[in-house]
Write a structure and sequence with these properties.
mainly alpha
Length: about 70
Amino acid sequence: MTVNHASTLSVDYFKRYLELVMNARQFSLKEASQYMTEQFFRGNPNLYGENTALHFKKAIVQIEKKGY
């Protein structure tokens, strides 16, 4: 997926991305978030800025509330 470095990615973007990774790879939420931290953020959650990192964390919390 192409990412524009000038914009902040939304919570909904990360919810959909995490759910896609979980479904496609049969990962738990924890495994999917680790995978995205390593692959998407290249090991640096602040790679695309603090707001994007915060939205990623919020997406994880919202998915946890859904019971994944």
